[in-house]
Write a structure and sequence with these properties.
Blueprint lengths: L19 H4 L1 H5 L5 E2 L11 H13 L12 H13 L8 E4 L2 H12 L5 E4 L6 H8 L3 E4 L3 E2 L5 E2 L2 H11 L3 E5 L11 H13 L3 E5 L20 H6 E5 L2 H4 L7 E5 L2 H13 L7 H13 L1 H25 L4 E3 L6 E5 L7 H11 L2 E2 L1 E2 L10 E5 L4 H16 L2
Parallel strand pairs: 1-13, 3-4, 3-7, 7-8, 8-9
Antiparallel strand pairs: 2-10, 5-6, 9-10, 11-12, 12-15, 14-15
This protein binds pyridoxal-5'-phosphate.
Length: about 400
């Protein structure tokens, strides 16, 4: 048992490191003096075992040439997924992908043709829409539904209607769902799979947030729910969000059905899309072999941050409700109670509170009136952000 305590309170200045979160504020918000809590990476130092492995590799062997898979690279991914998520696969059923958005683009181009329809479930991670339209495919929205208790659920009747009437070729299951942080239950995914098989829709399940489920929650990989799911599913995941190594770019794809997998992987290989570089393999292997305790402590810290935000909004910010996620470090703030239109809400956050969050409207029209807050930052930073927000709302 590892009794080491990791330090998530340390504030690290990221300016000038070519980091999107801080170095793109002006472009994103029109000013540089906002506290940045938008892009989904963490303000914590990555797990030290990963840093150590990278430093050792670079220092001990100063040739950075072409790579083949490192010993234990694939096994570390396979073991982690089996032990954590009950997702079993062989190396033959998997391949490396250089980032999930990139991987989604590759899958989209392989499994659909220009003009084809692709289902997304708004409000949802905006690059899905951007890639679909950018590749001249058409977006069909099967919007999430608000539940009586203020959370969200999938509208399965509408999904069947969409499958039947729009005849899409592909669907994106954001699993867990960003920006709301829904850990989709197995029975919901089973119904998605059943419908997808019936209407011949490939399901792209993006499981990048899968290792970030919070207490009492469980990540269910799409490929574990049924034979239907294994027939239609293309799953991608990564250690990137889990261990705060998104900039290293290391993801993986698993497809069980050989009729989908073989032509897809053949195309990826033909275009040299699935060769990990030595740094991504070194980081991935160290993360999956040694990062478990760091992740456990990180998730505890994140959960305390989430609870702090939920309580703070309830007690000090009338008009804003923080919706507790089931997974991830992103908190969906329902600001509709403020009664502001889109521009006034944006002005409140950026110019009055001096906070840089993701505007909910970027995730789809149903996200209007909401903001997405990244809470994977030292608590002192988050406390400061909440105070700035409370003061700005008070001044309205
Ligand atoms: C659901 C989801 N998919 C994909 C990504 C990005 O993945 P990558 O950096 O591997 O392209 C993010 C990042 O926020 C995400 O939230």
């Amino acid at each position: 048992m590892d009794d080491k305590r990791y330090d998530f309170d340390q504030v690290i200045d990221r300016h000038g490191t070519g980091c999107v979160m801080v170095d793109r504020c002006k472009e994103m918000f029109g000013r540089e003096d906002v506290l940045p809590l938008w892009v989904a990476d963490m303000g914590f130092a990555a797990c030290p075992d990963i840093t150590r492995a990278l430093v050792e590799r670079v220092q001990n062997h100063p040739i950075y040439g072409y790579s083949v898979p490192l010993e234990d690279y694939w096994q570390s991914i396979i073991d982690w997924q089996r032990e954590r998520n009950g997702l079993e696969f062989t190396q033959e059923e998997a391949c490396f992908i250089g980032g999930i958005v990139n991987g989604f683009g590759l899958a989209l181009n392989h499994f659909t043709r220009p003009g084809d329809k692709v289902v997304i479930q708004e409000p949802v991670y905006h690059p899905f829409r951007m890639l679909i339209t950018g590749n001249n495919r058409m977006v069909v929205n099967n919007g999430l539904r608000r539940t009586a208790d203020g959370f969200y659920e999938m509208d399965l009747e509408d999904l069947e209607r969409v499958f039947k009437t729009e005849q899409p070729r592909m669907m994106v299951l954001c699993n867990p769902h960003n920006p709301i942080g829904i850990a989709w239950p197995a029975d919901v995914q089973r119904q998605v799979a059943m419908l997808a098989r019936k209407y011949e829709v490939v399901v792209f399940s993006d499981e990048i947030h899968g290792d970030l489920t919070l207490k009492g929650q469980h990540h269910t990989s799409f490929l574990t729910v049924s034979d239907d799911a294994r027939a239609v599913g293309v799953v991608m995941g990564a250690p990137s969000k889990t261990f705060n190594i998104a900039g290293i770019v290391s993801s993986w794809c698993v497809v069980k059905n050989p009729d989908l997998r073989k032509p897809f992987f053949h195309q990826l290989e033909a275009n040299e899309q699935c060769s990990p570089n030595f740094l991504s393999m070194t980081a991935t292997r160290a993360a999956y072999r040694h990062g478990g305790e760091w992740l456990a402590q990180c998730l505890d810290y994140i959960e305390d941050n989430i609870d702090m935000v939920v309580d703070y909004c309830r007690d000090h910010i009338p008009g804003i409700v923080a919706i507790k996620p089931q997974a991830s470090f992103l908190v969906w703030l329902d600001c509709t109670g403020l009664g502001l239109d889109h521009d006034a809400l944006s002005d409140l956050f950026v110019n009055k509170a001096r906070l840089g969050l993701n505007d909910g409207a970027m995730f789809g029209k149903s996200g209007s009136g909401f903001m997405r807050l990244n809470v994977a930052v030292p608590r002192s930073v988050l406390r400061q952000a909440m105070q700035q927000l409370a003061e700005a709302v008070k001044s309205l």
